[in-house]
User: What shape does this take?
Amino acid sequence: MSENNEKDFSSLRQLLALKRHEVPPPGYFEHFSTRVIGRIKAGEARGESPFVARLTEEAPWMLRFMRFFEAKPAMVGGMAAALLVVLAGGIWYSGSDSNDLVASDQTPAVGMSNGGTMATGQPAPQLMTVASSGDSGGLAVTTNYSLQPVSSVFSSQPNPFTQPVSFNGGN
Amino acid sequence: MNMAEPAALPESGPSAAQLVEIDLIRRARTGDLEAYDDLVKRYQERIYATIYHMTSNHEDASDLAQESFIKAYQALKSFKGGSSFYTWLYRIAVNKTINFLKQRKNRNHMSLNDLDFNAEHDPDLVALVSENTPRRAAGLSELQEKLNAALLKLSEHHRLVVILHDVQGQSHEEIAKVMDCNIGTVRSRLFYARQQLQGFLSDYLKST
Assistant: This one.
């Protein structure tokens, strides 16, 4: 049975002999063991530094970025100078920006009249009365609009853009 | 270089070569990389050849062979000596290759090695190409491509049996040890794989 099988497949086995003639490029095995040992050493070196090993797994881009600067002092200096310029520019810009803010703070946007009337800088609904209703036991909100201008808190002249808001508490 | 050279397993006591190997393993286990370098040199061709024939891709075989040796070094302390170092190493390489092929699934890309000078003068191959093949114009390169494509159609386990037996010349017993199965399974897999291959390559095989 076994011999018959061998005879049946003799032609196939002849063809399979072709596989034995497939060889890697010349000299391939001369450096094979060196590559293996090199990779083992590299792995051991990585093993000595858990931080680098973790970085390699979790943030390989960071490691590539750091390795980009290895043995490149000019690149490191240039990068540091660029960072300093950005930092100084940021400080200068933030200083000038805060001055602008102080100046803009002097323009009132919202005012409150002495009688509890709130004045806004927008042409908004003019009068809102909030009163509690004894019948319902809840809050009743009525909106009474008045187009009468009121005087600003900060000036004695009436401000045409501010409208009075009245808080007439029911209780 | 003959990639088909089967590994010689001892029947009696350890030979001088085996004693040297045992010493190399002992030293490598203590971290002696020079000793491990010697071990790699002993088996690199056979391990590479097996993986190459399984993948039909030189680059993949190169990576997998290196990774197999690296993994073997890392696992060397777990090597108890129950089987020969060669069988143990083979198992690592074969498992790694099968896992790789399963992950790759059907995305097979062949990157075949060149045929050596002796192929043109191999009497079996010359006869197969020039006289008995129905397609007489088929050259060795075409045969090589068709053969590799046919092998890639087999399942990983069937391909492995054919390669270890018919290409690398290992015995059924050795293959059973490497594949961790019984000899009957090896025989049946070999028969089935050959039948499959014969069907795939019928145009290139002489009728008997």
Summary: The helical segments of chain A are 2-8, 10-16, 32-48, 50-58, 60-68, 73-105. The interface with chain B takes residues 5, 7-25, 28-29, 32-37, 39-41, 43 of chain A (CB under 8 Å). Confidence is low (pLDDT under 50) at residues 108-138 of chain A. The two ends of chain A are 112 Å apart (CA to CA).
